[in-house]
Amino acid sequence: MALDINLMGMGVSSHLAARTANGGTGPVNITAGASSGAATKITGTQFVTYISGPSGGGWVSMPAVGGSDNAATIADDFVMHNATASPVTVSIPTGVTVNIGSVSVTGQFTIPTIQTVTIWVVNTTQWFGLRSA
After folding, report:
1. Which end of the chain is flanked by fewer CB atoms within 10 Å, N or C?
2. What is the per-residue pLDDT across 48-106, written as a single tens digit (0 to 9) for each?
3. CATH assignment of 28-131?
4. Domain boundaries of the chain, sorted by first residue
């Protein structure tokens, strides 16, 4: 898996490198926040995340679409793996609906223990995803 820094070392511009590298800008390993108010923010170029600790699960939050260099863009995909001993709650930006399987969710969803979710951005209000079995 490549991160943007690997591509920039070959002369690729930073923005192009962040969008081209399958790992994005990293870091790949993140620690979930202990509560919704302390949720670890996933940036718009952090395409692969391995979520660890705290032992009681925790919280992460997805980026909104547009508005800054750290925002998600249309057709971005985010792979999140929960490596904690409890479910991890993922906060969704206000106004976004995520379809995962046969369920539409707003506000938040959970990633069960030792499972992976992949989310794709369709537009500013509609995303879809797949959850591992």
Report:
1. C
2. 899 998 767 899 999 988 866 678 888 888 999 999 999 999 999 999 999 998 899 99
3. 2.60.120
4. 28-131
H or E element that contains 39: none
User: CA-CA distances (angstroms) from residue 63 to 19, 40, 56?
Assistant: 15, 11, 23
- CA distances (Å), origin 127, targets 9, 73, 132: 33, 11, 17
Among residues 44, 109, 45, 111, the alpha carbon closest in space to that of 83 is found at 111
For residue 75, what are its two tokens? 């057709």
Tokens representing 84? Answer: 């904690």
Amino acid letter at 38?
Answer: A
> Which residue's structure tokens are 């170029």?
45
Place of tokens 């670890």: 40
Share of the chain above pLDDT 90, in %: 51
